[in-house]
C-alpha cells in the first residue's frame, strides 16, 4: 500500500459574480481526474505551466480546498470525507512548504513562535520543550538558535524558506508537500535549499510531493515525475525514462525548452515551440485538452484528438504512463495504417 | 533530537516576549511617553474634578464684565467657595465633602479668567473635560468592541454573511450623520419626555448612544479589508495545516496583525469624535447647560468675539485644552503603532 494514494481527484470552482444575488456563471476545471501514488520515502515531481492545476492538486490533498470528487488516502485513511475536527490528528502526517517564504511567515510572530506553532496547536509538550524543539529544528535546517527571538523580516529569502521548512518539519510528518519551494528565491540560493531538501529527505525518510515548473530542480530531487496540463496528468513515470524518452508531445515540448549545459548538445537541441497560451480551464477543449496546441495532432488520423479523450495508461513495463492517442493507435475504431511508425518518430 | 546546550540558546529562551518588547519600544519613545503621561494626568484631573480647590463651575457672579486671567503668583487662593453644582453622583458628592474639609471655602483665583456670567473658566474646562473624555472613551469602546468584531466576523465568514454585514455598514455610512443625529436627538427628546418614568433616559444618554451608533463604521470597514487580505495569506494556511481552529487563527494571527491598523484608525477617529461632540454641543444638541463640555465652552468663546472687544481667554483656553489633548492622542497613537510593529526600528 502506498503512503499517499490519490484517485480520480477532481476540483472545480464555481465562477460567480460579486454581490448578494450573484449566480454561478460557469465552472473552472482546476483539477480533472488526477491519480497517482507516493511511496514512503519517495519523491514525486509535479510539473506544468502556471494554471495547470499543480498547486490546486496539492491544496486539495492537504484539505485547504475541498475536492469536488475523488479520493485521497494517507496510509489507508481516506482524508476527503473527514470533518475538520476528525482530520486534525492526521494533519501532522502531511505538511507543506510554501512558494513565497515571506507570505508564509506571520510578520508579527518571532521565528521561535512560528516554528513551534504547529506543536502548540497540536498541544505537544510544554512551552519550554517546544522552544527547545524549535531551536533543534532551526539547527536541522542550518539556522542559528539565536534566530528564535528575531522576526521574519530580519532574514533573507533563503533563510525564511529554511524557517518555513523547519515549521513544516515540526510535527515530524511523513509527507512533505513542497509548492514551488525555490521558485521565489534567488538563483544563487536555490541550490542550497534544494540540497537541504535532498539531505532532509535522506535523513528523515520523508516522502516529497514536489511541485515545480523548473525541470532541472525536479530532475535533481525526484525519482518520479508527473506532467500536468490543464488540470490533468498527461504523462507520469520514472525520472530517467521521462527525461530520456518523453512520449507525450507536451512533455517533449517542455523538455525541449530546457537549455543544455553542453554547448554541442545545446546547438543540436531542437526546440518544439508551442503556439498560443494554454486554454482557459473554465472552458477546456474537447477530447485531448492539448489538441489545439499539439504540434503532432496531424499524425493522428481523423478527428480523434478533438473527439476522444486519451486515457492515461501504462505503455510498457517501464512504468511510464502517457495520455496520447499516438501511443495507442489500436484502441480506436478509426485505426490508421502505419500509425505505429508515426509514433516511432518521436523524440526531439 | 536533543539540542546541545549553548549560551545563545539559553539567552534566546530567556528573551522577552513580543508584548514586553512593545512596552520597551514605547518606553524608549520619548514623545509618546510624554503624551501618555500627559493624558494620564488629564484623565486623573478630570475624574477627581470635585476634589481640586476650584471655584464652582456654575456659580454665577454678575457683578461685572468677563474678567481676564489672573496670574497665580499675584493671587493664588481666595475665599468664597460655594458648593453649587448640578445633580452630582454619590462619589462626586463625597469628593466635594472631602474638598470642603481639605480646603474650606478657599478656591483658586480666576487663573483663566471668567466668562460673561462670571463663571470660572478653569473650573469649567476641568469639569467639561469629563464630557469629552467620556465621548472619547465611548467612541473607543464601540470602535474596538463592535467595529473590530463586526469587521472580523464579516471578513472571516465571507460570502453572503459578509455581503449582508457590509451592506448594513454601507447603509449607516450613507446617512448624513449630522442630520440624523440632529433628528434623533430632537425626536427622541420629545418622545422620551412623554415616556413612562422607567423608560425615561436623559438627553445626554441619547446623545452618547447616537454617537456610539456611528463611530464603529470606519473601524469595521478597515478591519474587514485587512482580515480579507490575511485570510488569503499562506501563514494562515500553514496554521490550518497544523490543525488550528478558527479561534486560534483569530487570536494568534488575525488580531495581532490587525492591531496596528486598529490603533491608527482609533487615533484618527477619536479626535474627530471629540470635535463632533464639540460641534453638536455648540449647536445646542449635545450637552445641555448647566452642564459643561468643551464644545459648549467653544460656543461661549465664539460668542465672545464681538465688535466691542475680544475676550481672548474665552477662545484661547478651551482651544488649547482640546488641542493639547488631541495632539497627545495623535503622538501616543503614532508611538503605539510603531511599538506594535516588529518592523519598526528601535533606532
Annotate the secondary structure layout.
The complex is a heterodimer of chains A (348) and B (347).
Chain A lengths: L3 E13 L7 E15 L4 E5 L6 H9 L6 E6 L2 E2 L5 H8 L2 E4 L13 H11 L5 H14 L16 H13 L5 E5 L7 H18 L2 E6 L2 H7 L2 E6 L2 E7 H6 L4 H8 L6 H6 L35 H4 L5 E2 L6 E2 L16 H6 L4
Chain B lengths: L6 H8 L3 H11 L1 H18 L29 E3 L10 H14 L2 E3 L12 H37 L1 H16 L2 H17 L9 H13 L1 H15 L2 H8 L4 H38 L10 H10 L1 E2 L2 E2 L1 H29 L7
Helix pairs in contact in B: 2-13, 3-5, 3-13, 5-6, 5-8, 5-9, 5-11, 5-12, 6-9, 7-8, 9-11, 11-12, 11-13, 12-13
Question: Can you offer a commentary on this structure?
Answer:
Chain A has 348 residues and is an alpha/beta fold. Chain A has helices at 54-62, 84-91, 111-121, 127-140, 157-169, 187-204, 215-221, 239-244, 249-256, 263-268, 304-307, 339-344, and strands at residues 4-16, 24-38, 43-47, 69-74, 77-78, 94-97, 175-179, 207-212, 224-229, 232-238, 313-314, 321-322. In chain A, the strands form 2 sheets. An 8-stranded mixed beta sheet of chain A has the order 6-7-8-3-9-10-12-11, with helices on both faces. Chain A has a 4-stranded antiparallel beta sheet with strand order 2-1-4-5. In chain A, a hairpin with a 2-residue loop joins strand 4 (69-74) and strand 5. In chain A, helix 3 (111-121) packs across helix 4 (127-140), helix 3 (111-121) runs parallel beside helix 5 (157-169) and helix 5 runs parallel beside helix 6 (187-204). Chain A starts with a strand and ends with a helix. Chain B has 347 residues and is an all-alpha fold. In chain B, 67% of the residues lie in helices and 3% in strands. Chain B has helices at 7-14, 18-28, 30-47, 90-103, 121-157, 159-174, 177-193, 203-215, 217-231, 234-241, 246-283, 294-303, 312-340; strands at residues 77-79, 106-108, 305-306, 309-310. The radius of gyration of chain B is 25 Å and the shape is globular. Classes of the chains: A alpha/beta (348), B mainly alpha (347). Chain A binds chain B through residues 19-20, 62, 64, 84, 87-89, 91-92, 95-96, 98-100, 103-110, 112-114, 117-118, 121-122, 128, 131-133, 135-137, 139-140, 144-149, 151, 153, 164, 167-168, 170-171, and chain B through 1-3, 6, 8-9, 11-13, 15, 18, 160, 163-164, 167, 233-235, 237-245, 248, 252-253, 256-257, 342-343.
